[in-house]
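User: I'm new to structure prediction. If I give you an amino acid sequence, what do you actually give back? Let's try with this one:
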Amino acid sequence: MKWNALLSTAASLALVTVLGLTVRFPVHAAAATPETDARSLPRFTEEREAAALCFVKKHLPELAPLLEQLKKNNNGQYQHEIREIFQATEWLADLQDDSKRYELELKIWKAENKAHMLAARLTTAAEDEKKKLELELQALAKDLVELDVAILEVKSEQRREPRENYYSNSTASVAA
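Assistant: Good question. You get back a string of structure tokens that encode the predicted 3D arrangement of the chain. For your 176 residues, that looks like this:
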């Protein structure tokens, strides 16, 4: 779920500022800009809704009650969020052959959505609870930075592997 007050998107990255700590992380397929959201998201169907809710219940069960409440209060926004979640599930499914990247991207999805939920709670929290929520948000921001670095390392490693294989194969054929 995106909360415009928290996220600022620019080109291919997002910036999140939590208590003075700015976090940069890639904007994934599920986090399109508002101008392209409606056009780029898959249309809402009951099957996609069921798949999205199953994914949420498996990976981030604390989001399910919030979605249920959103469905009662603002069905249009609920459908939009379901479409975003479904798109994220499809994008993640495409990564399942690359288990390292899949696990990291799933962790990013979870952390981003936990941060959005905490930010929403922060707006209505009592003063004594705000400090705790701010600390949790700061920890999630740090986690997102570490996950972003890990993703970059995996991508870099994957780009090096084909070149290393090419050079080792060409050296072997020259030696033969």
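You can read the tokens as a compact description of the fold. Here is one thing that stands out. Residues 49 and 82 are 6 Å apart (CA to CA).
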